[in-house]
């Protein structure tokens, strides 16, 4: 399971301080040394760790103690609150268009889980919000990408718009949105092309798809298992394209958690959803406070 090592270490560390009736500056310092190591070992960006430790220390030393909590519990609460803030604070919901359809562009590197997540997101919108999404197959370069999305659509009994692989993604996006308006789809989810590495050609094309489709959201799909690489990928895509949010996939694997814990702080992009498996229902809206509770036990 994701975060297992980190969760174990943090829980052990906090356990030591939780019961204390009196917390000295030295206690806090010692605890923070251990928290710092645990975060670094979980592959959290070192600048993020540094800031985090600074904030928790400031708030823990010389704090006003709430009557309802022991000083030890109070420190644990500070760690929890700061971890929640680090993960994005409030849950970030999908921005919807006043005049449907709401357009969501899915971008990311090949293998991150883009096509799968496109299907999962459509399934989520239909099941939880009773929406009528149209899936758009605009990845014309990866062999079998169109077929894969059609298969996903077939499984979910949702329509997939495709014009084959000889029409440009820009044209596909344009026609798909026109069709969505005609047929009263309230969401259009565009599965775009990914490459193994970020390159100029890919970005140029994605920018053109963005211009024509004027999306309400541009979600970067990143594989949580790639750790700091996921953060770097998010920074590049954001610079070039202006993202609105991130979907972290494969959080069901044994990722150390570095990506999840660094991405908001480094890029200021909210994590909107997390992928928790290969199945179509394995997508969850991301709740920073719940994730924080899960990690801290
Ligand atoms: P794309 O190239 O970005 O479109 O990636 P795909 O959607 O084809 O996904 C690549 C692989 O990752 C597939 O085998 C998916 O089943 C798998 N995958 C996607 N999301 C998740 C997830 O949240 N958890 C797990 N375990 N596997 C995932």
Structural description of this entry:
There is one protein chain. This protein is 51% helix and 13% strand. It contains 11 helices and 8 strands. Strand 6, helix 10 and strand 7 (271-275) form a beta-alpha-beta unit. The mean pLDDT is 93. Guanosine-5'-diphosphate binds at residues 108, 110-116, 194, 249-250, 252-253, 275-278, 282.
List keywords for this structure.
GTPase activity; RNA-binding; 297 residues; 7S RNA binding; single chain; elongated; 11 helices; Signal recognition particle protein; 8-stranded mixed β-sheet; nucleotide-binding; binds guanosine-5'-diphosphate; alpha/beta
Order of helices and strands: HHHHEHEHEHEHEHEHEEH
Rg result: 21 Å
Mean pLDDT: 93
Principal-axes shape call: elongated
Task: Look at the helices and sheets and give the structural class.
Answer: alpha/beta
Largest sheet: 8 strands, mixed
Q: N-to-C terminal Cα separation, in Å? A: 14 Å
- Attached small molecules: guanosine-5'-diphosphate
Strand order of the main beta sheet, please? Answer: 3-2-4-1-5-6-7-8
| Fraction of residues in helix | 40-55%
Number of helices: 11
Tally of strands: 8
- Indicate the proportion of strand residues: 5-15%
Weakly predicted, low-confidence segments: none
GO biological process, one term: SRP-dependent cotranslational protein targeting to membrane
Keywords: Cytoplasm, GTP-binding, Hydrolase, Nucleotide-binding, Ribonucleoprotein, RNA-binding, Signal recognition particle
Domain SRP54-type proteins GTP-binding: 270-283
Protein name: Signal recognition particle protein
């Amino acid at each position: 399971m994701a975060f297992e090592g980190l969760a174990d270490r943090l829980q052990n560390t906090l356990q030591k301080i939780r019961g204390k009736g009196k917390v000295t500056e030295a206690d806090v310092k010692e605890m923070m040394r251990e928290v710092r190591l645990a975060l670094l070992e979980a592959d959290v960006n070192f600048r993020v760790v540094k800031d985090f430790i600074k904030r928790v220390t400031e708030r823990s030393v010389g704090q006003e103690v709430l009557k309802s909590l022991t000083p030890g519990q109070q420190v644990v609460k500070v760690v929890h609150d700061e971890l929640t803030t680090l993960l994005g604070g409030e849950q970030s919901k999908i921005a919807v268009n006043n005049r449907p359809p709401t357009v969501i562009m899915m971008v990311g590197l090949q293998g991150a889980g883009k096509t799968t997540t496109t299907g999962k997101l459509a399934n989520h919108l239909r099941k939880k919000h009773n929406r009528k999404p149209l899936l758009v197959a605009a990845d014309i370069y990866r062999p079998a990408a169109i077929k894969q999305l059609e298969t996903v659509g077939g499984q979910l009994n949702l329509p997939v718009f495709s014009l084959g692989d000889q029409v440009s993604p820009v044209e596909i996006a344009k026609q798909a949105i026109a069709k969505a308006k005609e047929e009263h789809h309230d969401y259009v989810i565009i599965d775009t092309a990914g490459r193994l590495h970020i390159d100029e050609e890919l970005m140029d094309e994605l920018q053109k798809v963005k211009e024509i489709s004027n999306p309400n959201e541009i979600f970067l799909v990143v594989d949580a298992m790639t750790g700091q690489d996921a953060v770097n990928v998010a920074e590049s895509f954001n610079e070039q394209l202006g993202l609105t949010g991130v979907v972290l996939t494969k959080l069901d694997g044994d990722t150390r958690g570095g990506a999840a814990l660094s991405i908001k702080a480094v890029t200021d992009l909210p994590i909107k959803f997390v992928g928790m498996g290969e199945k179509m229902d394995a997508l969850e809206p991301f709740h920073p406070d719940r994730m924080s509770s899960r990690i801290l036990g």
